[in-house]
Amino acid sequence: MLITTLRTIAYTFSAFLILSCAGSRQRAIKKSWDASLKENIYDNMFNGILVMDPVSGDTLYKKNARKYFTPASNTKIFTLYAALTYLPEYIPSLEYTTQGDTLYFRGMADPSLLHPYFQDSTALRFLEHQRKLGLVVRPMKDQPWGPGWAWEDYDSYYSPDRSSFPMYGNVAQIWKEDSVRVIPEIFHKAISTENSGVNRMQDKNTFFYPYHNSDTLLVPYKTSDSLTRNLLEQALGKEIHLAQHFPSGERKVLYSVPTDSILMQMMLESDNFLAEQLLLAASLTIGDTVDTKLIREKMLSVHLNELRDPPRWVDGSGLSRYNLFTPESMVAVLHRLYREVPRQRLLSWFPAGGVSGTLEDWFGSGQSPYLFAKTGSLGNNYCLSGYLYTRSGKLLIFSYMNNHFRIPSAELKSEMQAMFAYLRDTY
């Protein structure tokens, strides 16, 4: 009886010491971060932070955690979760049926076909063996550009059109060898060597590559159903006719690259085109019409209906300044991913501090990476949300969002870097 009592006292005392130690660490973190956030650089900006321990459920630090922020590319965390929820292991590429000697087909928003990075040709290999081809026009409720995108970015590589049948990443790749070259070659006669100050005319596929230029340019082209048909005809070397409707008959689906390969490239390089196409592709798993509003609303009303601060979620990439998310909502989705996806697979999608993707030059440790997070950058905004390993081996979830600053972003990142290093070393 005495021994049992002594053991109980010992266990209770040990638990008290552990809790006291954890509490003291949390107080130290709060004191340090509070002091850091009083630095002058934060005077004329707005920030929100939430850090949690997913094992204990403890909140280690929070500030404005339920305030709304412009998330920039942190939006891709929600797109990632939507893609995991709706897309299969391999990306749906074509939907098709056969009538007589003609194969009728239409796109399923697969971004990989002849993409500069993936160079996938699954659809072409399939189509080249068919006698006659009919390209069916896919209804789209989404416009080529998302709401709130900056119109002056129309000729920038990071703002390609969204479409149901993308090819070449919806960009023209222009460079110079002995002469000016372009992929796809269909645009060869549409390139001017005059110096216009832009890479493409706003309303048509006329491109500008000054003669003295030696760089390789990636320039979005304006998409259309007729251009898609022409690009396919050139790639396949056979005639294709446009059809407005699918004929009756069983519809089948052709798949292309592993979905994980698209997710990884989207997250590591913060690829806007891939993010937008993933949402389009997800919408086609529940309907015939491209309608990302449907998939976003279903995600928020069904799969993420527990969020206390429902976001204003308007696109897949975060290019839009209409997007509004809270740090708490970001952490909630990251927590979902933490619970539902094996650790190694999950962290492989996120840039690693000092090692890969958009964090290659920041948040490193000189040893193995300790921070795995998605960046989000727009003019005067920088957000970072993801996972952080402490020296004690704990994995924390965080969202740190900054809006409306006028200082150089490198100065802000340096301050954040010091704060994260303290968190890593203390908890």
What keywords describe this structure?
alpha+beta, 427 residues, 5-stranded antiparallel β-sheet, globular
Q: Percent of residues in helical segments?
A: 25-40%
User: Biggest sheet: strands side by side, in what order?
Assistant: 2-1-15-14-13
Structural class estimated from helices and strands: alpha+beta
| Tally of individual helices | 10
CATH superfamily of the largest domain: DD-peptidase/beta-lactamase superfamily
Order of helices and strands: HEEHEEHEEEEEEHEEHHHHHEEEH
Strand content: 15-25%
Account of the 3D structure:
The protein is α+β, with helices and mostly antiparallel strands and 427 residues long. The chain has 2 domains: 28-81 and 285-426, Beta-lactamase (3-Layer(aba) Sandwich); 94-257, no CATH class. It contains 10 helices and 15 strands. The strands form 4 sheets. It has a 5-stranded antiparallel β-sheet with strand order 2-1-15-14-13, with helices on both faces. Strands 11-5-4-3-12 form a 5-stranded mixed β-sheet. Helix 2 packs antiparallel against helix 5 (259-269) and helix 5 packs antiparallel against helix 6 (272-283). The longest helix has 35 residues, at 2-36. It starts with a helix and ends with a helix.
